[in-house]
Design a protein that fits this description.
882 residues; eight-stranded mixed beta sheet; 30 helices
């Protein structure tokens, strides 16, 4: 078992080095004294005995080194020694060490933060059972315009009954609904986001409530008692985490519901804002759930083991095609099915921007590494004579390389530790700022992120350390020792290497600046787009009249009329009106129609348009121009509300070259509505083009979900509280939600574009600063190395202006090279982000010219100061310094 003893001795020497060295020295001294004593006993004199013992014993220092070599880990000791040397060396230049650590921390911190987001949102599996088998189901419309259309209840019913590819199928409402939660125990009424889902949604996802139970098939029947499952956040906030809320009654839309369960804190499907779930078939009418052409639901399925996606979509398409062929007279019955992995569906359009930002942080990290490498190259030039002397005294090239790499590793490790702290702060800020981001609840630092950070530290250390080491690998010892001029101490090769690194920095900075400029200009173009209505000093708020309380159309109409009258009488209110959704608030829904005066459409063709319910004063309230005819009047109410107003794009698409006034639209159960007016186009989202819209009279009394729009001459937000008080006076249990000005509404819809542009701009500005510092350092270094040459030039009669231009152009040369390379790379990058741009071309000349001007200005400013110092040199002082 000698190998065990050997390992034990090595561990002892490693952990207790000082003590064991003393023991070894004592043992060697003991044996030497024993030999001396033996020699004296053999008749030698003490002096002769000592000399003889030393000759017989050998060199004690050599014996000590051989013993240590046999009983210790030399490689570990060498690493520890390199760490001590590296720390002492960096401590002699604290400014260099601090700057390098800060630069690396910024690069690593940005990358770790974005990697955490990308991994959590895009790469981490959904927190459901076997998430790779979860599928989102779609319909493929018969006119090919909607290959990923939401599902009709009747189509889903056939899929569930006839398909064999899925172990589970569930359906839920396509848009987040809202329920009025009545106040209790002194609480105010509240409008909460909700989703109606079939009873088997939670089993399909493989999720169990944290408290209580989920729905059963008996709960999801029209005749069942109303039940509800609460989100963890709502249970904690509204009910104070009271477990006794289970099996208790809460009132939603003025109807009693029994709370049966509370979902886990992490569960947030289909959206983060959902606060409760109700059974779909209990809430919706049987007609709605059996309709084949009412596309308003989301379908989710779990594939059976061994079934592929292609097999599943083929089976669903066959079922859908049969239904389509059986109802050729209905153009809104889809002809096929489509599917998508549930993870991809949840992520949506966020994948592209996240990957773009991750690439941007990669550029920032590379720029940071190039900057640190540049600093290390300059530092290696200053230490060139030192390294040459150490080489002449016997140090191996490998030993010196190890020390230089260890210095780089120490800088990277310190920068990585600080970067991890910065990344944590950035992630906390991001999650709190962008709670609307898909899977925001999954974003956190875990062991994989720590491993990624360690990998970045290693790569940065190797990248920066090897570049500086290679720059010194060709040194000739004799020439280095013979150098006396500071001009020679740097060497042309080293200066060229620094210029090359700087050109790469500038090129990457140009790419970031141009990409950020394109996104920023796109956002500004998007933000300034015309919605087709007045947006300044307009306040909006939503509410929904509970059907259980407002059962008759006349009740709804009376409420709308009374509320509008009181709001319009408030001092300072210019106009007010109701509409289903104001411009910029979303698509909401569309409806098919036929034109009575036109011949019937061929089989399979359809006409549809967005529909809105509006009161007579809505168009004036938002300044939507009336282009022809008239708007609604107060007489068009209840049974007499059979008029319709259409938008300009509606006329251009469906009445080209003819007057639509007086024509009739057949819709809403084949009822006939006379067109009495044409109004200007508005956009349902600011980033989308105007679509045909039909406006029906709100006072028909069939609609209960509305948005109130109020316009004023001043700060319109001051009317939020007075209007809420009026609503409470009319119905104390009716909550108001989404109280936003039109400008806030626009900002909310453009938050993604704004966030992407501003974050990328921050990276670009940071990179520009790093490049400017690097350029300033390179030029200053070159001036310092060429002090003697510049002094001689001035002494021989060179004009100071020519010296200034010489140094300035020499410094700007790497900036010009980097600018050219960056422009070429930016052309490619601009094409990659084409889909993210709105209203501008990828190769926008203004953005490119602006970035070129900015970069040249910053580069010139970074070079001017050292160039000016060079031109003001006193030749006598410069020559004496040599």
């Amino acid at each position: 078992m000698r190998w065990l003893e050997k390992i034990r001795m090595r561990l002892v020497l490693l952990l207790h080095r000082g003590r064991e060295v003393q023991r070894l020295d004592a043992e060697l001294s003991f044996h030497l004294e024993q030999q001396i004593a033996e020699n004296i006993s053999a008749g030698m004199s003490p002096v002769e005995a000592r000399y003889a013992a030393r000759r017989a014993f050998g060199n004690p220092t050599l014996l000590r080194e051989q013993a240590r070599e046999n009983w210790s880990w030399n490689s570990v000791e060498m690493v520890l020694q390199n760490i001590r040397i590296g720390i002492r060396t960096l401590a002699r230049t604290p400014g260099f060490a601090f700057l390098s650590i800060l630069v690396i921390a910024i690069g690593i911190g940005a990358n770790v933060a974005l990697f955490t987001v990308v991994r959590s949102v895009l790469l981490k599996p959904l927190p459901f059972k076997d998430p790779t088998r979860l599928i989102r189901l779609y319909e493929y419309s018969s006119d090919d315009k909607f290959p990923f259309n939401v599902v009709a209840g009747g189509i889903f019913g056939e899929w569930k009954k006839l398909s064999h590819s899925f172990s589970d199928l569930a359906i839920l409402s396509g848009d987040e609904g809202e329920y009025n939660m009545s106040g209790a125990n002194g609480q105010l009424p509240e409008r909460v986001r909700a989703v109606e889902c079939s009873w088997d949604l939670f089993p399909t996802l493989g999720v169990e409530p944290a408290l209580g139970r989920s729905f059963t098939a008996e709960d999801d029947q029209p005749s069942a008692n109303a039940t509800v499952v609460l989100s963890w956040g709502l249970w904690k906030r509204r009910f104070g985490s009271d477990p006794t809320i289970l099996n208790q009654t809460i009132h939603l839309n003025a109807k009693p519901y029994t709370a049966i369960g509370v979902m886990p804190p992490w569960f947030a499907y289909p959206e983060q804002t959902v606060q409760l779930w109700t059974p779909l078939y209990h809430e919706e009418s049987a007609e709605q759930m059996q309709a084949l052409d009412s596309h308003s639901f989301v379908a989710v399925g779990r594939l059976k083991p061994g079934v592929t996606e292609n097999q599943a979509v083929t089976e669903l398409s066959l079922i859908t095609r049969r239904l389509h062929d059986e109802h050729l007279d209905n153009p809104f019955v889809s002809k096929a099915a489509n599917i998508r992995l549930l993870l991809e569906d949840i992520i949506g359009d966020i994948k592209g921007p996240l990957y773009m930002l991750l690439a941007a942080t990669g550029c920032v990290l590379l720029i940071a590494c190039l900057n640190v490498a540049n600093l290390l190259v300059a530092r290696a030039a200053v230490r060139r004579r030192e390294l040459a002397i150490r080489t002449a005294l016997g140090s191996s090239r490998l030993r010196l390389l190890g020390e230089q790499l260890m210095e780089s590793f120490i800088l990277s490790a310190a920068g990585g530790a600080l970067g991890l702290v910065l990344a944590y702060a950035v992630i906390q800020w991001l999650v709190s700022t962008r709670q609307d981001m898909s899977r925001a609840e999954a974003i956190h630092i875990d062991s994989s992120v720590v491993v990624f950070t360690l990998g970045l530290i290693f790569l940065c250390a190797v990248f920066a350390g090897l570049i500086s080491s290679v720059s010194a690998s060709g040194d000739q010892i004799l020439s280095s020792l013979q150098e006396s001029s500071r001009y020679h101490s740097g060497g042309h090769a080293r200066a060229n290497l620094r210029k090359l690194l700087l050109s790469a920095e500038v090129g990457l900075t140009v790419v970031l600046l141009i990409t950020a400029g394109l996104l920023l200009k796109s956002y500004e173009r998007l933000r300034s787009s015309n919605l087709g209505c007045i947006t300044n000093n307009v306040l909006t708020m939503r509410f929904s009249l509970p059907e259980a309380q407002y059962t008759q159309p006349a009740q709804r109409v009376n409420f709308f009329e009374t509320l509008l009258e009181r709001v319009r009488n408030l001092p300072g209110v210019q106009a007010a009106g109701f509409v289903t959704a104001v411009p910029g608030q979303g698509y909401i829904g569309d409806n098919g129609f036929a034109i009575a005066e036109h011949p019937p459409l061929p089989s399979g063709q359809s006409q549809y348009a967005i529909f809105r319910w509006a009161d007579p004063g809505y168009f004036a309230a938002l300044g939507i121009p009336v282009l022809g005819g008239e708007t609604f009047d107060v007489g068009q109410r209840l049974d007499r509300a059979m008029k319709v107003i259409v938008s300009d794009s509606f006329v251009r698409r469906y009445f080209p070259g003819e007057d639509p006034l007086g024509k009739h639209l057949l819709t809403h159960g084949n009822k006939s509505y006379e067109i009495i007016g044409v109004v200007g186009d508005t956009r349902f989202l600011i980033a989308q083009p105007a679509q045909p819209i039909m406006y029906f009279p709100l006072y028909a009394g069939s609609e209960n979900n509305e948005t109130l729009a109020v316009r004023s001459t001043g700060d319109v937000s001051q009317f939020a509280l007075p209007i809420q008080k009026i609503v409470q006076q009319l119905d104390r249990d009716l909550p108001v939600s989404d109280i936003l000005t039109m400008n806030q509404l626009i900002g909310k819809s453009t938050v993604d574009a704004s966030f992407d542009a501003k974050i990328l701009l921050a990276f670009a500005v940071l990179s520009l600063g790093l490049a400017a510092v690097g350029l300033f350092g390179v030029v200053s270094y070159m001036v310092a190395q060429r002090t003697t040459e510049i002094g001689i030039r001035i002494a021989l009669g060179a004009r100071r202006e020519s010296v200034l231009s010489l140094v300035l152009l020499d410094g700007l040369r790497p900036a010009f090279v980097g600018l050219a390379l960056g422009i070429i790379a930016s052309i490619v990058a601009a094409q990659l982000i084409r889909s993210m741009l709105y209203g501008i071309r990828p190769l926008d000349p203004i953005v490119f010219l602006f970035v070129i001007a900015i970069l040249l200005s910053v580069s010139s400013a970074a070079c001017v100061i050292p160039a000016w110092r060079a031109s003001r040199l006193d030749p006598m002082v410069a020559l004496r310094a040599e």
